[in-house]
Specification:
Blueprint lengths: L35 E2 L10 E3 L3 E4 L5 E6 L4 E9 L2 E9 L7 H14 L3 E7 L2 E10 L2 E12 L2 E9 H4 L1 H12 L2 E2 L14 E2 L2 H4 L12
Parallel strand pairs: 1-11
Antiparallel strand pairs: 2-3, 3-11, 4-5, 5-6, 5-12, 6-10, 7-8, 8-9, 9-10
């Protein structure tokens, strides 16, 4: 189970709308087992794709796919192999408490409303969800893993065989452990996605709106 750093209690337990005016360190650094906050990165030299709020390992044998919206902002990050995939998301969280417990409740309700099945269990990173979602021709296995960090929450959704088979899940969960979260100091409403971006050298290679067909 991943260990996570905790901020000191503040009156902003439910609101993340102001910068931390006290510039002193708000927490002591402790060893974690990942995913890591940027302050806890155990191996800064490891090759990772820098997407701003997330740094995703690229030496795992998994393909990293990035979806980009019309504003050139990253809308989705997915790790893929021949057996299935894992989608990553990172969200703003309160200073003093996690949101994974509430998010699990919402995911369970959503899956049930779609006619799927879902159950909760203890996993590699604490409590997690596993179940099946309706899909063309039957159902697709899904597995949700979440980790609360200092002012952030990161979630992984495995789908396909890795969601149902622990052996096939291993490369995805190993990659998840090595993810680095860079929350930043910008004020964000709780549960809002922390913005992701392409590396500058990649973004410069994208055609502008004027250059795209119909632009």
């Amino acid at each position: 189970m991943a260990q996570r750093r905790r901020d000191r209690p503040t009156e902003q337990s439910k609101i993340d709308a102001t910068p931390p005016w006290d510039t002193r360190p708000a927490h002591e650094r402790v060893l974690t087992t990942g995913p890591f906050d940027v302050l806890d990165d155990p191996d800064e030299a490891a090759p990772r794709l820098d997407l701003g709020a997330l740094r995703v390992p690229v030496d795992t044998g998994l393909e990293v796919r990035v979806e980009v919206g019309p504003d050139s902002q990253v809308s989705a990050v997915t790790l893929v192999n021949e057996s299935g995939q894992m989608q990553l998301g990172v969200f703003a969280a309160p200073r003093t408490e996690g949101i994974w417990e509430e998010v699990r409740t919402e995911i369970k309700a959503s899956i049930s409303s779609q006619g799927g099945t879902v159950s909760e269990r203890d996993g590699d990173f604490g409590r997690e969800l596993t179940g099946k979602l309706p899909a063309p021709g039957g159902f697709t296995p899904v597995r949700f893993v979440g980790v609360d960090g200092p002012r952030w929450f990161v979630r992984a959704m495995l789908s396909g065989a890795p969601a149902a088979d622990s052996g096939q899940a291993e490369p995805f969960l190993n990659a998840f452990r090595r993810v680095i979260v860079v929350r930043g100091a910008d004020p964000l409403p709780v549960r809002d996605p922390v913005p992701l971006r392409l590396p500058p050298d990649v973004a410069e290679q994208l055609p502008s709106a004027a250059e795209q067909p119909g632009g």
